[in-house]
Amino acid sequence: MDLPVTVSGPTRQLADFASALTLADVDDVARHAARRHVIDTLACIINGAGQDATLSVQKALTAAGVGAGPVSMAGFVESFDALSAAYLGGTAAHGLELDDGFRAGSVHPGAVVVPAALALASQRGISGAELLTAIIAGYEAACRIAAASHPRSRWRGFHNTSTAGVFGAAVAAARLLGMSADDTEAAMGIAASSAAGIFTFLAGGDVKRIHPGHASREGLLAALLTESGLPAPRGALEFKEGFFAAYAGGDTGEVDYSTIDILAAGDNNPKSRFAIANCYMKPHACCRHIHAAIDAVLDMAKADGITAPQVDRVEIGTYAVAASHAEVGWSEMTTAQMSFPFVIATALARNQVGVADFGDVERADGDTLALTGRIDVRVDEAYEAAYPRKRGAHVLIRTKDGRVAERHVPEPFGSASNPLTDEGLETKFMALAAPRLSEAKARRALELLWKLDELEDLAPLVEAMRG
Length: 467
Hints:
Radius of gyration: 21 Å
CATH topology of the largest domain: 2-methylcitrate dehydratase PrpD
Shape: globular
Family: Belongs to the PrpD family.
Distance between the termini: 49 Å
Organism: Rhodovarius crocodyli
GO molecular function: lyase activity
Protein name: MmgE/PrpD family protein
Domain MmgE/PrpD N-terminal: 12-252
Order of helices and strands: HHHEEHHHHHHHHHHEHHHHHEHEEHHH
Low-confidence stretches: 1-5
């Protein structure tokens, strides 16, 4: 059977881009951003390696008789086969709700791309420069595909991190394997059949944590299947029965996906054309859609002296995707990190939103729970019109003694336009990595990561990150 002839649609556009990319093509802004996002993602993986969901995956792999092999993954003592290493790394990266994201696509690219790329690069003895180049290419694929899909995919119930993310892992792996544009397109064609992940996690459970793990493993497997000769469909993104039609409603006639400029989907840092330069980092351990409101609440607490016992009502206006999280409960850590009322109550009660604020004891705290009933979230048409270009919120707090304080936050802290500093990133890395690696090993890993593109041999870095 003859496969469809390749045309210059978005699938081929990404394949051409990734296969031709060299580190010399990457501007200094994007190259520095790439180092930063690798550091940020690996911090999340290292700490997340000990999370319950990650341990469940590890136990399941052992029960299935797979997992053991020669490949290390950051934060783990054991070594694994490459596919299991990617699965575990992706799950660990997303276990804290502290991993990075691309606002325009509502996607967490690092949790998918970095574990797959690191697992393959470690296995094949690939240099740090090639690893960084592959990660930049993988981010481009995951971010641009997600941006072209969003928010239609979200309202259809799909989680872009896993559905669009699988292409990022496949492209990164294809780039590491030195694949041609034809083979990169083929790897994307195979990956398309493994795109999966829906928003059922809002109803409870911990399945959200494994979404990046699944996408990381399946994207890597797609590239390995291509390397092994498996024929694949072409034009998998824009084909009439392809990814965009299935996941973003391309059959409605709203968008002709075959003609879009995929590399222009979403938006860019004014100083760089690469998607990785416009990704955000999380200062708060919860859903990014709530961060603008958190920033507003924390600023009012500090600047206006508002304390939790003084609060009568909190009125929040934001965009519809964010406002939908007002209906999420807090029966377990995952849902609590997605819950607008619980997160804002936590910010008021604790003056922070960290990983430790979502445990069993914290979720049952009477003072925090009392505040949840005083928080109203609604759709504000101005913020809705600005989304997904901006993720803003307006927060008004009324106190019991009649005071009113309010803040408008058009874009939350950690974005490319309001970034975490390098020093702040180092603090985050050490806080997450040192408890699991030791202070000395974490410092050594951080030192090596800042010069990742200079490393001819990844072995010292891999060893420094071993749990």
